[in-house]
Known about the structure:
This protein is 36% helix and 21% strand. By secondary structure, it is α/β, with parallel strands linked by helices. It has 2 domains: 3-206 and 297-329, Rossmann fold (3-Layer(aba) Sandwich), CATH 3.40.50; 210-290, no CATH class. The strands form 2 sheets. The protein has a 7-stranded mixed β-sheet with strand order 7-6-5-8-9-11-10, with helices on both faces.
Amino acid sequence: xxxxxxxxxxxxxxxxxxxxxxxxxxxxxxxxSGELVSQSGRCYPIxxxxxxxxxxxxxxxxxxxxxxxxxxxxxxxxxMGRPMAGHTTRMWETITQVxxxxxxxxxxxxxxxxxxxxxxxxxxxxxxxxGIDLSQAVEMARLNFADDxxxxxVQGDLLSSPFRSGVFHGGYTIGVLHHTPDPLxxxxxxxxxVRSGGWVACSVYPEKGFYAYxxxxxxxRLHNRLKSIFGxxxxxxxxxxxxxxxxxxxxxxxRIPRLNHWLEYVERNxxxxxxxxxxxxxxxxxxxxxxxxxxxTHTGDEVRGWMEKVGCTNLKKTGWGxxxxxxxKV
Length: 330
């Protein structure tokens, strides 16, 4: 972390300010190791440039594995001239409703940053990007931004975040809160960290979408039963089989009118199949669908209700779906 981010952080238990005690500093000022110390003596280590406020990944372990395996697949630089070019930027713009010139010089927070593909959008537009994640995905995120002093990656709990209130110009969470035990609490924490008049955006799984399919739920339950014995190997094997074999076969089969409805029934109820045009994205998203410990789905009214409860106004459903809502913090 760079010392300039120190004033954004606080003790997640007491909200006390934190003092940096560095052990190793790079020439550009980045603190490689050391600790953050609260006024009452609580200490939080800085390891490999990342402030650490948790010791275990808890329910987010699958995402640490996922992003270690596919750390840059969804970054724009990895998709130039490929079928998913521009997708990450379009997704971020649609969900946040923030135009290109609004991030310049501003500090934006992401709750659930993974390996950092959306943080990359902010940095390419001249903003300072701050990301927090519970999982070991933070290791990949830090590597993806190397020694960039305008990026802060934090390992911490989204439901009890180590950020001071009202310190960010805007904040967002995309495809993450439905993987926590309490999405409303996570959104409450995100909104708390944004200053009055700043923007807040939230996008979660819809109740009637792909992630609510009975087939996805079945494979997820099966994976979680087998994980203690076989780790992620069965889920990984299925992701490859589905991506390389099932997806092409079912796509061709759907061109036959008599098979189309039957194959849709099979997809919805028995087989997890995604037909994204890039095989790398297909692999990642299939694995992502069947491995989380927690994956809830929600309605648009539910998400709007959350936004109202946390103190956001001017609510707007975005073009990413009914469970993608943004607003302004009062």
